[in-house]
Amino acid sequence: MKPFAYVRATGLPEAIAAHGARPGSRYLGGGTNLVDLMKLGVEAPDTLVDLTGLPLDSVEETADGGLRIGAGVRNTDLALHPLVRTRYPALSQALLAGASTQLRNVATTGGNLLQRTRCPYFQDVAKPCNKREPGTGCGARDGVHRDHAVLGHSPQCIATHPSDMAVALVALDAGVELQGPDGARTVPATAFHRLPGDHPERDTVIEPGEIITAVTLPPERAGFPSRYRKARDRASYSFALASVAAVLDVSGGRVRHVALAFGGLAHRPWRATAAEERLLGAAPTEGAVREAVEAELDSAEPLRDNAFKVPLARNLACDVLNSLSGSPRS
Amino acid sequence: MDSTPAAPAPSLGSPTTRLEGREKVTGRARYAAEYALPDRAYAWPVPATVPRGRVTAVDTAGALALPGVLAVLTPSDAPRLGACDDPTLRVLQDPEVPHRGWYVALAVAETPEAARAAAAAVRVRYADEPHDGVLHTDHPAAYTPEQANGGYPAHREKGDAAAAFAAAPVRVDCAYAVPPLHNHPMEPHAATAHWDADSGTLTVYDSSQGSGLVRSTLADLFDLPADRVTVVSEHVGGAFGCKGTPRPHVVLAVMAARHTGRPVTLALPRRHLAAVVGHRAPTLHRVRLGARTDGTLTALAHEVTTHTSRVREFVEQAAVPARVMYAAPDLLTTHRVVPLDVPTPSWMRAPGECPGMYALESAMDELACALGIDPVELRVRNEPDAEPDSGHPFSSRHLVECLREGAARFDWAAHRTPRRDGPLLIGTGVASATYPVYVAPSAARAHALPDGTYLVQTNATDLGTGARTVLAKIAADALGVALDRVTVEIGHSALPQGAVAGGSTGTASWGWAVHDACTSLLALLARRSGPIPEAGVSVPADTTASAKQKSPYARHAFGAHFAEVQADTVTGEVRVRRLLGVFAAGRILNPLTARSQFVGGMVMGLGMALTEHSTVDPVFGGFVENDLASYHVPAHADVPDIEVHWLDEHDKHLNPVGGKGIGEIGIVGTAAAIGNAFHHATGRRIRELPLTPDRVLAALG
Questions:
Q1: Which of A216, B206, B222, B609 could be bridged to B191 by S-S, CB 3.0 to 4.6 A?
Q2: Half-sphere exposure in the Cβ direction for B34 (13 Å, CA)
């Protein structure tokens, strides 16, 4: 096999330095995706810098009443955390809808955000894929693409982002804290993942050497009614055909806050701003909800074999928003 | 003879846990890849990356330069193989690439990792050829073969089904589609081969359903006398038919062992399996049913179109169960096959019956709806007096009893109104099941030992089903001793010849020989006096003459499935709420493992109905689903509390063991029952499996 070096990071600066020391370095979290990709030959790092020994594994309440989730917190621990379950239920639901118990016990918060698409052409080094190998073409476009994107795809790439968790984070206006060779910064979850455009090889805005250190949840969303719902081919351990995360605050019969995000439809979790604009300030009747969701999905461009995702996403979004419109704040 | 005062209670019919259970759960049971022979090396094959073509060059330099690499075999320099009936085993013999995934080279190295890296470093150049992997009913290459799998005539016609159909007052004429499916047993195919050049002997540990067939095949391929070849399949981690014949991995392992002079283990990665160990071929069905208004069938036509590879003709015999099921005077059953640039299909649990009964039992449900007759009742009204196609009397047939018993236990009559629970549409469905009784010649040897115990030997294979245990029970009862006095040895080609573990034949075939050996031994012991000598007393048995005798009876197991299903109108997700099966399969020998077999078959049928499918890539060839993340076998969350019952069936026209075989009937009809329940729930019929949200949403409009 291709030999690689393994470095167990002792601190953030050391991790960043170790990563920068060799060009083919990858940070290692739970390894549930990276190690698979190494076996497939999709990834062939020279060095793995293991971050799981860093003190990034706690969930803390911030002074302003939000939550700061260490990037090393395992998906299971995060899903079951009492403050997550009570204040940000959509996040807990999204995590539990993902993968399997065994995978969730190992997968980390940071790694979940950085997992790669499960497009079969991306995973097969003998087939063309612009994401894996820019310029080789997209095998899925004329091949098998029932599970692929209907929103925001490009001629270069029709892959979807596989995370459930990220969809909830986008709807909850989470922040992604990064630490890199040039310092620290925070990127809104809504801006963390990219659309493919001409550079499908780049899934996120993360820069070389940067580490996700934490995910923050804003106090403004704590206790708002929120929900995640996912449709899939089997009841457990399968990726979303489509999913929805929504946050909805209604008072006085009017929508005071709404956030709607789709999973399984695009190269990134898809924040449905057009739908939100229509609903904000309006009475959340079933008709208004449907109209808003349909307005958002008007921009969908289904491929030959995945047009079903549009009505599926519409149904899910209407169902989740309608169920939330009668929910009180906790 | 031993002076036990009274014979112990019979073991057969009472539940017994697997005799090797402790070995398995403690990790001591060894599977084919786990024989850590001294100095062993590892092999990793290289699959073709074009859908069809020819290898023009193989550059092995990069691979051979890697550390720990011992050899790379290619089509131009691999050892030449002898004659073989199965062309899928003639690996690395010529440059042709009949489908994506066909092996084009083999890397051998000191470690599995090095072998894998070497395989990845082999550079293969191809001359591409145009390819076609997509099956259509009107494909110009379709032809009617002589025979379908199992040796059945591909085409049978009794009376004039087309004319009878045209004249029938009530008609159903429907097309159904079953996609390619994959067996995916838990243990991928693996072999460890050891060539001893000094003695000229070959020893192979293989994950196989029949080590005897592996031995004779390897002897032919490597031009060795059969007595120089030993094949061991002591424990096998599931198979479902895809280990029923030798597979390329074992041939490659032997090639590598002979080439390097080292013991070699080759364990196929999951991602290779879809292309090289067989699959259930897709089947496109047209079923026409004509009936009188009272539900009496007057015409039945089942026409099947399926695919095979360009390597070998394999025809899924999906129209064959229609020859068995219902009393239709005018009966047409026929198959057409299209050779495509696809991997070679083969056996998967209940080949023929499984996809065929999905179509036939769906059509029967459509007919019941068209007639306004209860679907249980419709089946009862068409119960034949004799096997419809052959006219032979049934040795026993308790389909009606299974339907009635199932209907009562399921509370069928009370659930015949579809209901709505919020967004969920809920309904019920029923389907019949059938599977033929086969039996194959086997031999066994029974030994009485001086310590009062017995040793029984036959080259049976235990795929995880409990074969070893049930043979011990058969022996114990035949000998009239307690189970713990009997030791069974199986899974070794040096033992008396045993049939392949396939076609639900194992227990009947091996059990017959074991029974004969034990009863002969008992008779011999009764005739002799004095203590058992140190070497023991032993008796052989061989059922070749008796098992090959043609029965005047049509012999089949029958069953009935009842399903309650919910369809979510929001997501299109279909879930099974209840699944109940009743089977009439002769004598049930070990209720514990029998239940597992039925439940396992039903779970696999549930997967066929709702989640499982493989897709031929129309652009790149081969199958798209190459791992268990994308090939969706049911997860626990998909499987409801499955209820299984069986009738106490005594059929004296079978074999001394009295069983009909239970390995496959559980999967037959399950998908139809679920599909019929979906229709009952929603009023919509989906005639293509599986019932995934895309299809369901389209159907619900």
A1: B206
A2: 14
Residue A1 has pLDDT above 90, yes or no: no
Q: Identify the CATH number of the domain defined by range B394-437+555-701.
A: 3.30.365.10
Tell me if the pTM is above 0.90.
yes
Read off the CATH number of the domain in which A234 is found: 3.30.390.50
- Comparing alpha-carbon positions, the chain B residue that sits nearest to A309 is B694
User: What are the percentages of helix, strand and coil residues in chain A, rounded to 5?
Assistant: 35, 20, 45
Domain holding A264, by residue range, is 225-325
Task: For residue B103, give both structure tokens.
Answer: 């092996």
Computed over every residue of chain A, the mean pLDDT equals 97
Nearest-CB residue to B116 (from A1, A124, A237): A1
Q: For residue A23, what pLDDT is reported?
A: 87
- Classify residue A295: in a domain, yes or no: yes
Per-residue pLDDT, A3: 86
Strand B443-448 relative to strand B537-542, pairing? antiparallel
Picking from A2, A124, A231, the nearest residue to B573 by CB comes out as: A231
Alpha helices in B122-261 (DSSP H): 161-167, 211-221, 248-260
Q: Cβ of A143 and B629 within 8 Å?
A: no
Longest dimension (CA), chain B: 82
In a domain, A131, yes or no: no
CATH code for the domain in which residue A17 is found: 3.30.43.10
Collect all residues from B whose CB is shorter than 8 A from any CB in A: 49, 113-114, 116-117, 120, 271, 423, 569-573, 575, 610-611, 615, 617-620, 624-626, 629-630, 632, 634-638, 692-694, 697-698
Tally of domains in chain A: 2
**Does a structural domain hold residue A281?**
yes
Active site residue B303: no
What pLDDT does A2 receive? 78
Integer Cα distance of B229 and A63 in angstroms: 75
For residue B198, CA distances in Å to B15, B193, B257, B439 come to 48, 15, 14, 40
Judged by DSSP in three states, B79 sits in coil
What distance, in Å, lies between the first and last C-alpha atoms of chain A? 53
| Residues B466, B471, B477: CA angle, nearest 5 degrees | 130
A329 pLDDT more than 70: no
Identify the band that residue B640 occupies on the pLDDT scale cut at 50, 70 and 90. Answer: confident
Residue A312: its chain B contacts at CB < 8 A? 571-572, 693-694, 697
Fold match, B21-30+439-547 / B394-437+555-701 = yes
Distance from CA of B377 to the nearest CA of A (A): 33
Q: Where are the domains of chain B?
A: 21-30+439-547, 33-130+183-276, 394-437+555-701
CATH 3.30.10.20 fits B33-130+183-276, yes or no: no
Q: In 3-state terms, what secondary structure has residue B537?
A: strand
Is residue B665 within 8 Å of residue B354, measured between CB atoms?
no
The DSSP element (H or E) to which A14 belongs, if any, is: helix A12-21
Provide the CATH number for the domain formed by B21-30+439-547 in this structure.
Answer: 3.30.365.10
Residue A201: inside a domain = no
